[in-house]
Amino acid sequence: MKKKLFLVSLLSSYNLIFSQIGIGTDKPDPSAILDINADQTSQKKGVLFPRVALTSSTDIVTIPKPTVGLIVFNTGDNPGFTTRSFYYWDGTEWRLLDSSTAIEPSVNSLQCENAMLTPPRYIAGQKYSGTITLPYIMGNGGKYTNNGILEENGLSYGLQPGTLNFGNGTLSYTVTGSPSVSSPTGTKFTLKFLDKSCEVTLGTLNEIKTVNFARKNTSPIDIFTPENSVTKIGNLEVRYNGTDPTINGFIEFRPLIPTHVTLKYDKVGSGGQNLEIYGTIPASNDGTWYKTVTDGVWKWGWGVPSSTSGSFPDLSALNRDIGTVLITFQNNTTQEVYRVSVNINDAIPAYNRIPAIKSGVTFFIEKLE
C-alpha cells in the first residue's frame, strides 16, 4: 500500500514539474509556466532577481557563458558600468530591458552659455516649478540616471534621467521650491553631468512683457490711400502717402505726444536699390506728418536723415519695395520703441494657379516694451 502511495505522489510531482507552477495562486495563468501572484497574499512582495556588478556591456567573466535571455540586475558598483538597471544577454552583449544600448553615457562638451530656465522668472516666497535645459555636443546614445539634488536660494534642482542622442541634444534639470530672492536677482546653478560640470546664473530676466502689434492692408493704392492706410498703435500713427502705384511714395509718421524722435530706416526692393538712413528731431503733436526723408519738415536741422547710398528713401510699388523703420519716442514721461514694416506692390497678374492681386500697401507695426 505504501509503495502505491509513493508512486502516485511521484507521478503527481512529475506532472507539476513538467506543467505549470503557481506561487501565491492555485490557478496559474494558462499561458505561463510560472505565475507569481501577490493579489491573494496578505503581504505584497516582489521578485528579487540576481544582483551582480557587471564590468561592461560585454562582460562574460562575472557570469561565465551567459545564455541568451538571461536577466540580471546590475548594481552599478563598477566605475566603468554604473547604470543601475535590469539587463538581459542577447548573445553578444548585455542590453537594458527596453533594448537600448548599455554603453556608458558620454558627451564631448556642455554648452553652458546656452543654458535656459523656463519659466525664466521667479518671485521670492512663491512656489516655483520649472526646468533648466542644458545643450550638449556629441552624445553617444547612452542611458543616464539622476545625480542627486542640489539647492540654491531656496530652489532645489536635479538632473532628469534619460537617454543621450547620438549627436547633439539637451539635458533637463527639474527646478522646484520657494525662492528666497526675486528676479532679476539671479541664482547660480551648478549643473553636473558625468565628469563635467559648470556654473550658470539664471533667473536674471527683469520683466516679461508682451509685444503689442497692429496690422493693416489697404488696397488698391489710389487717392484715398493716405487717409485709408493710417495705422495707429500706442502714441504713433503711420501712413503711406502714395496715391498712384506707378509713382513712388513715402512712409510718414506722426506722434500723438510731443517728443524727441530717433529713427533708423532701411529699404530694399527688387529694383536693386537699398539704403539706410537715420536721424533725430524734436516732434510736436500738432498733426504734422513726418517723412523718412530730408525735406522741409525736418526744419530744426538736428540730425537730418542722411543716406548711406545714392538711392532715395521713397518706396516703389513696381519694385515691391520693403521698408523698415525703428522709431523711438523720448520725453519726460515715457520712452517708447516702435518697429514699422511696410510692403507695397503694384497690381500683380495671375501666374499658374496663383491668383492676381490688386495694388496695395501693408503695414505691420510692433510696439516694443
Describe the structure.
There is one protein chain. With 369 residues, the protein is mostly beta strands. The protein contains two helices and 27 strands. It has three domains: 58 residues, no CATH class; 94 residues; 157 residues, no CATH class. It is 5% helix and 41% strand. A seven-stranded antiparallel β-sheet has the order 17-27-26-25-21-22-24, with no helix packed on it. It is elongated. It starts with a helix and ends with a strand. The relative contact order is 0.09.
How would the blueprint of this fold be written?
Blueprint (H helix, E strand, L loop, with lengths): L1 H16 L3 E3 L10 E3 L14 E2 L18 E4 L10 E5 L4 E3 L12 E2 L5 E3 L9 E13 L2 E2 L4 E4 L2 E5 L2 E2 L2 E12 L9 E7 L2 E7 L9 E7 L6 H4 L2 E3 L2 E5 L10 E5 L3 E10 L5 E10 L6 E2 L14 E2 L14 E9 L4 E11 L14 E9 L1
Keywords:
mainly beta; 7-stranded antiparallel β-sheet; 5% helix; 369 residues; 6-stranded antiparallel β-sheet; single chain; 27 strands
Could you tell me the number of beta strands? Answer: 27
Uncertain regions spanning at least 5 consecutive residues: 1-16, 295-310
Largest sheet: 7 strands, antiparallel
Number of helices: 2
Number of domains: 3
What structural class do the secondary elements suggest?
mainly beta
Percentage of residues in strands: 35-45%
Q: Tell me, rounded to a whole number, the average pLDDT.
A: 84
Tell me the span between the first and last alpha carbons.
101 Å
